[in-house]
Amino acid sequence: MELTLLCIGDVVGRPGRAMVSQALPKLVKEHGIHCVVANVENAANGSGLTEPLYEKFLKYGVNLMTMGDHIYRKGELMPILERSNCIVRPINYPAESVGKEFAVFETGAGPRVAVVSVMGRLFMRPPCDCPYHAVDRVLNRIPPDVKTIVVDMHAEATSEKVAMGWHLNGRASIVFGTHTHIPTADERVLDKGTAYITDLGMSGPYDSVLGRRKDRILKSLTTGLPTPFDVATDDVRLCGILVKVDADTGRAQSIERVCVYEDSIHPQNEHD
Questions:
Q1: How does pLDDT run across 8-34, given as a tens digit for each residue?
Q2: Of the options 3.60.21.10, 3.40.50.2000, 2.60.120.580, 3.40.50.300, the CATH number for the domain spanning 2-265
Q3: Of 116, 141, 182, 242, whose Cβ has the fewest other Cβ atoms within 10 Å?
Q4: Which residues are known to be catalytic?
Q5: How deeply is 131 buried, as exposed, middle or buried, from its count of CB atoms within 10 A (0-12, 13-18, 19+)?
Q6: End-to-end CA separation in angstroms for the chain
């Protein structure tokens, strides 16, 4: 059978959460989506994730969650990372880090989907182990009956992301990049059946600098003075990809970029 997966880029602050809450049910219904994967490391006011927000994403319909370099910004998330089967930590963090290295979701149709998160090394903090060796190690631990495998490469450098796509070509169903918040136009299915895109883009306010208020960022860049990087509020979008996967082989059949604009769904403000 064929599975349809939706992968959502970095959800930024309240505007991004509100957009996900409003757009996701419609997308799931329209496209018959079996599994939703979202990067949620910027959900709590732009940095980190809290336990209440984790619960909200589950209610919105997110099935599997990835993080990145902001994973430990909120200490209250530690118990969730320890016990949840829906959220993962970067696999090339130290072995002592809190969180699971992969998570598996059983779709309503039956086939299961696994998700893995890995960090790049170029221009990233904290320093991490080799992402390529780490992903080899963890893929060998995923149950062999799980054919659909999704890998989130959270990295700054496009070269590292592209390299990971080729490294996992034929071994992962989907490899997508996150972290840079800028959607790329290089989506394709590689020759051995891996759907790839360098960056999903963010789900949040695009009248901004990577989700933060333009005036705050410009003040910091032009004066060198410390300035709070408040989350922006305007031109909110949900960005990601729709991928169809052969559940029997794990090979991707197609990949399509998704961008839902605020005006198209008229979302109401989310109340925390």
A1: 999 999 999 999 999 999 999 999 999
A2: 3.60.21.10
A3: 141
A4: 70
A5: buried
A6: 39
Rounded CA-CA distance 24/26 in Å is 5
Distance CA 41, CA 37 (A): 13
* 3 state DSSP class of 11: strand
pLDDT in tens, 152-170: 999 999 999 999 999 999 9
Beta bridge mates, 124: none
Chain position carrying tokens 């209250």: 76
Q: Look at residues 10, 13, 9 and name the one whose alpha carbon lies nearest to residue 230.
A: 13
Token pair, residue 36, equals 């939703």
Q: Which two tokens stand for residue 114?
A: 């696994």
Say what the pTM is. Answer: 0.95
- Indicate the residue type of 197: I
